[in-house]
Amino acid sequence: MQEKKSIHGAWASRWIFILAATGSAVGLGNIWKFPYITGENGGGAFVLVYLFCILLVGVPIMMAEVLIGRRGRQSPINAMKDVARESGHSGKWSFVGWMGVLAGFMIFSFYSVVAGWVLYYIAGMGVGDFIAIGSEDAGNVFNGLLADTQTLLIWHSIFVVMVMLVIVGGVKKGLENAVKFLMPALFVLLLVMLGYSMQTEGFAKGWSFLFHFDVSKLKWDSVLEALGHAFFTLSLGMGAIMAYGSYMPKKTSIGGSVIWIAIMDTLVALIAGLVIFPIVFTNGMDPGAGPGLMFVTLPVAFGQMPGGQIFGFVFFLLVGIAAWTSAISLMEPAAAWLVEKFGWHRIPACTVLGVIVWALGVAALGSFNFMSDVTIAGFNVFDFLDFMTANVMLPLGGLFIAIFAGWFMKRKMAENELAMSSPLLFNAWYIALRFIAPVAVATIFVINLVEKLK
Ligand code: PHE
Q1: Residue 107 Cβ < 6 Å to ligand 1
Q2: Is the minimum distance from the CB of 325 to ligand 1 under 6 angstroms?
């Protein structure tokens, strides 16, 4: 068969693919969400379950996404359709791509709000607003920001524009150029921060909070949270990684690349924990503070410490970069599809997408002020979007991808794309994909549902 090419272009090398996918994976999930949900779920035991989910569910499904993308060489909607047909099945499998596009919009809308907070804090740290701030004042700054619709709107809009400006450039000029500079910068900033936190008194305490595994503390909803977070942090189940896979060079090893991405993503989350918790403990604060952990606790801590303003600025800059390279991948599948379907240039495609996600983001942002009494199933809009995507749609999308690649796609196709040297490794992947991942996701879903109904 003649080798298909993507009309959108291709990454220059294996490393660019790894950087881009790592850029997608490493985001607010790692630095904002992972530490605070770890704090809320009691620390070590949660981390252990999360690591199992990454290894046994995340890695096999990520390989499946990349391989479907590279085989189909199109946006997830069209790649799913073509690969399904090529395997003699219905093109309706494209629904997995559609669900992913929807999840992408939903994630983007709350993601952009949090990224907006981050931009506000970069600016605030930069001009020294948080010098020697007390915890009450820091809480007031954050709550004041949440109540200030206009300021939130400004930063949310800026973030939407930043993301769209990269996607407009396309795969090579936009995405590739962005990740080539931003990702190395992110790694350097993170190591600077780690060096800083290692000097604090609370380092040992932060370490044991993360790595002291006390499984007796674990509840079923923490297990669902860990599973959902594994999908969220690896950008799985919605097509982002599939789209990036469709731009991957042919000869590159999929398994080898995916391992790198998973390792880097996990390391960044753990290091973020090792940056945040020691600072929290050094200042005698509460690790279970929830979504405000990064925005209230940390500025206070930075405000008290020598050099804290500079490090605070560096820290939020780092988070902003991470959020930026992830948000790009949330919209790339939809942008690619618009280009394929209507033959549009990326400018109109990004304008349309930008307007849609901007408007959705306004609804998410309103949950903190003008829409605070609107609830869906007991959640405010912001929490609903977060819960529905991370804990329901992404695992469900991943489940369908595993079932498709494990049971419907021709095995020969997987063998060819993965081109693994060892049959043993291939079989391990295949078993994980066909049995372990679907059973794990389905079981955790069902148990949670039963627990909720009890
Ligand atoms: N992985 C990103 C993070 O951890 C979020 C994301 C999810 C990005 C799904 C793309 C797709 O912040």
Answers
A1: yes
A2: no
